[in-house]
Amino acid sequence: MFRSLWRWLLSLDQPFPRKAAASPQNPPCQPEAIPPYRVFSRSLDLVVPAQDLDLVLGPMSVANRAAHDEAWQAFTGALQGWRTKVHLVALDAAARIINAMGTDAGSSTTFTILVDQSGSMRGQNMILAAASTDVACDFIIHLGASVEVLGFTTRSWRGGGSRKRWLFNLRQPRKPGRLCDLLHVIYRDAADRRASTCGSQLRPMLRPDLPKENVDGEAIEWAATRLRTRPEPKKILIVISDGAPVDDSTLLANGPDILDQHLREVVDELQRSKDIDIAAVGIGFDVSQYYKTSRTVRTPEDLGNALIGLIEDTVMARAA
Length: 320
Prior knowledge:
CATH topology: Rossmann fold
Distance between the termini: 94 Å
Order of helices and strands: HEHHHEHEHEHHEHHEEH
Helix content: 40-55%
CATH architecture: 3-Layer(aba) Sandwich
Largest sheet: 7 strands, mixed
Oligomer: single chain
CATH superfamily: von Willebrand factor, type A domain
Strand content: 5-15%
CATH class: Alpha Beta
Number of domains: 1
């Protein structure tokens, strides 16, 4: 007994073991890698025609309806002078394209204009994005091409039903991936060849209760999937955005880079595949960090000219 006690007392004088020095066999800890992109649940995601937004968002409140009417009046009336100037720019661009490529310049081309409908786009940005898209549709149709107009946001703030399910699941898995309910909106289908309806089709884009969060990578995948069903051999996707992808619930649960990294991966893959040309216009935000072909405007008023110029550059580059 005393001998065992003595051995124990001696052991108290031994130095504490030290951490092994970093070496190739025992490297220091590395920052945690961003896991592959994943989605917690797709069951609550929706794709809806614009005219059915009431079924998703519910009828607008009195205040929202008044704001919507005011935005529509600006779209149809107050912007007439601005629209005329952009139309003239579009006519000049169309003349250059037709002179270089012939009168059937766009007959083998289909376009998708994909509009970011995040909360920061509400108000002036959205009105001018809609007006610019309207002029661009006329420009594209004048070239003989088809055009589709899509928008993307989320169904609610702070994750919605997907986040509630994750919380009910005791926050498992620990990194759930995308944790919100997507809302993708079809304003104009590429199969619609009418030349005079785009403006009225875009009225729901001005709803003040529509803009929320933006998951750009999945929206681009959706738009590209739709484009690939089109028979035209030349396919062009134009994105209008005013910032990086953001969904607070997803970022808080997974880290700040998950949506940004996914957007980069999606765009890089499209640019490598080369079956779809992708380009973007940024409103007060430098989109060149994501897209090789892009333009950035400082103010929303410059968006129309920039969008027409970007379409012209993309069409001419495709023909070269």
